[in-house]
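Protein entry
_____________
===
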Amino acid sequence: MIDWVPVVFVTFKVLIFGTCMFFAIKWHYDQGKKAVDKRALLRTGGKVAAVFMLALLGVLLFTFGIARMLGMDLSLP
């Protein structure tokens, strides 16, 4: 006898992901029809890149700080 729990969950997952993908594609298609200000787009892209780099630096410093606090040797041979 087949276990129905995986069948129900997989079916539910496929329906939800399919619906979400449809609306995501529709939203992006509708956004493509709008006029785009290239300066605002570049400015926003620069801000996102800067925030990403700062977050990456913060995670790196946090990781090395925790490693040093735990007494790990991080020197290269």
User: Anything to note?
Assistant: The chain has two domains: 1-34, 36-77. Residues 1-34 form one domain. The mean pLDDT is 91.
